[in-house]
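Q: Could you fold this chain for me?
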Amino acid sequence: MTMADLTSPVASAVASEVPLLRLRGIDKHFGPVQALFKVDLDLPSGQVTALCGDNGAGKSVLTRCIAGIYQPDHGEMFWEGREVHIHGPRDAAALGIEVVYQDLALADNLDIVQNMFLGRERVHRMFMDEDSMERSAAETLASLGVTTVRSIRQPVASLSGGQRQAVAVAKAVMWNSKLVALDEPTAALGVVQTRMVLDLVARLKQHGLGVMLISHNLNDVFEVADRIAILHLGRKVAEGPAAQFDMQSVVDYMTTGKSARHAPS
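A: Sure. Below is the predicted structure, expressed as structure tokens.
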């Protein structure tokens, strides 16, 4: 299934009353170090939720718990209102959860199509079904508005940073995804490439996907986020509509865990 197979963007972008993913009381220890303390988080469909926090706040640990890489020590996860146990990345992918990490995990020596189907190649009569894979890759990129690549057969090594990010996102959403987590997607990108990626995030939302945006760039956060959740030293200290925050209050929460400018939920 590709993005082109999804229902009307307007209809599907309406967030359900039940969050797509709901986390309650998530704890995570690494030996004597407690990385997460009873974290609650809601990730609705058709909305961008920015996860903010300073280095060491627990953003990466929480993301890896959602992705099935880490198992929480305590707490509950609810997917579309049903309690689930995510024991590994395959469980997460089966639900429709995909994470695009900062390193993107793309193979530079392979072309765009080969990267998008890496490990999930289509076979027809014992041969690689190149035509089918090309069509699906092209449809997915087109549905995301990715029009700057010269050819879907060009090596990933030849792409710009923004184009690489677009390919990684397209790879994530090809597989019936419902929630996409993006880890610092605009880090080290120039102005034009950042604009491309933020437009891509907006299109994911328009297609009705839930998006978790992990970012230190508050300009990006306030441009695309519908909701903001903030971690400080492993605890969620604030969560709510982006309109209830300003940049200073977010910085306050990130650095001190509290803010006089906004009451946390």
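A (continued): The first helix runs from residue 9 to 12.
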